[in-house]
Amino acid sequence: MAKWSKKELTNIENLIRGILVISSASICFAYNLGYLFFFGSIGVSLVLSVIIGSWLARVNNQGKAKQKKNGAKKELTKRNHKTEKQSRKPLTDQELLTADIDSLSGPDFERLMEAYYRDKGYQVERVGGSGDNEVDLILQDKKGYKIAVQCKRWKKNVGNDIVLRLKAGKQVYGCYDAWIVTTSHFTKTAIEIAGPLNITLINGAQVHDMIRRWRKEKAKNMS
């Protein structure tokens, strides 16, 4: 229901009162019901208009109160998320080796993938930030072959919009290939367009498997 001001409610009540009075008068004169019935119907019309006006005002106030409550709740949730994000400290390199991948923050997931690819022999440049063109990491092998990598620590599926933006980012940074690494999955459209664009999609199951194997190798080498 629309939210009305006090002036608008008064105008609505007056309009209802006018309609009821005119309707009552028309019926009285049309059927020649007499002055007693006429004044009685006018009185009833006035009472009804007041009742309807009061009901509209109550409903309107309840709507405003609910809207205000929902707004305050959203603001509180927003502040809590902001506070949680600000207070969440980055994990140490050692903690990254044992932390649950799905519980990592976005930046920590990028750091984890950076450590993984660096350990696999790539030179790694971190790009992630505002205006990164969906490129978080740039990998370069010993022959100078460059790969643009986008890391998505998401729960929802990665869509085709990310694929298209990474295609542009790959060109901006002069990379030959591009990979999207996510803890979730990809939409059907994203999968369909990634192949022709020469973009490799690495889903959550693959990420968990390759990180598990890597951590196992590192633990074995450290023992």
Automatic annotation (TrEMBL):
Locate the Restriction endonuclease type IV Mrr domain: which residues? 101-211
Q: Where are the transmembrane segments?
A: 12-32, 38-59
* Biological process, per Gene Ontology: DNA restriction-modification system
Q: Which portions of the chain have biased composition (kind: Basic and acidic residues)?
A: 72-90
Q: Which Pfam families match?
A: Mrr_cat
Keywords in UniProt for this one? Answer: Endonuclease, Hydrolase, Membrane, Nuclease, Transmembrane, Transmembrane helix
| Disordered: region residues | 66-90
Query: InterPro entries recorded for this chain?
Result: Restrct_endonuc-II-like, Restrct_endonuc_IV_Mrr, tRNA_endonuc-like_dom_sf, Type_IV_Methyl-Rstrct_Enzyme
User: What would be an example GO MF term here?
Assistant: restriction endodeoxyribonuclease activity
Protein's name according to its UniProt entry: Restriction endonuclease family protein
Organism of derivation = Brevibacillus borstelensis AK1
